[in-house]
Design goal:
Length: 177
């Protein structure tokens, strides 16, 4: 299974390398796929955030169809109209997803920096959004990476992989790591 990572308004190369290292346990092939798209139409001056659905639509329309899944990773603060912010968004049973690390940095909340925490949070959110691409819905198991998270405390509490039930659903769909 192949994962194409699209860094978009993303400058943290050490974080990207760590994510690739961790994601290589789940994907046999990972490639960086750069794109030049104008995402300014997705910006909301009132909210000072970017509309994640519009970014996904822009990337889908502007890129050739590479094999595998496409993960957009960004440092932009994202939203959807009904929520104050989102950590990510994905096409259910689709190939495209986006994850923002903006609110995953500890510096967003405190004056402290912690690279280990941002890597853990980012990996959990990437696996969560890709899980939606695989067709998984939110899981009730707090230890599952598919458990819904509307704040970083929820991300920190949940586990860093899929629970047995979610792994079973993936196996039933012939998605095997």
């Amino acid at each position: 299974m192949k994962l194409n990572i699209v860094p978009l308004k993303f400058s943290n190369d050490p974080l990207l390398r760590k994510l690739i290292e961790n994601l290589s346990l789940f994907f046999r092939e990972i490639e960086i796929f750069y794109t030049l798209i104008d995402i300014e139409k997705s910006y909301s001056p009132e909210r000072r955030q970017y509309y994640s659905t519009r970014i996904l639509e822009s990337v889908i329309k502007s890129n050739p169809e590479p094999d595998g899944y496409i993960l957009i990773i960004t440092e932009l603060d994202l939203f959807v109209p009904v929520l104050t912010h989102v950590f990510g968004e994905a096409q259910l049973n689709g190939r495209f997803s986006i994850v923002s690390v903006c609110r995953l940095y500890e510096e967003f909340y405190t004056a402290e920096s912690d690279n280990k925490i941002v890597v853990q949070r980012s990996l959990k959110e990437v696996l969560h959004e890709i899980g939606h691409n695989f067709g998984l819905l939110h899981c009730k198991n707090w230890e599952c990476v598919m458990h819904a998270s509307n704040n970083v405390e929820n991300i920190d509490i949940k586990g860093n992989t899929y629970c047995d039930e979610c792994f079973g659903l993936l196996k039933a769909k012939n998605i095997v790591f």
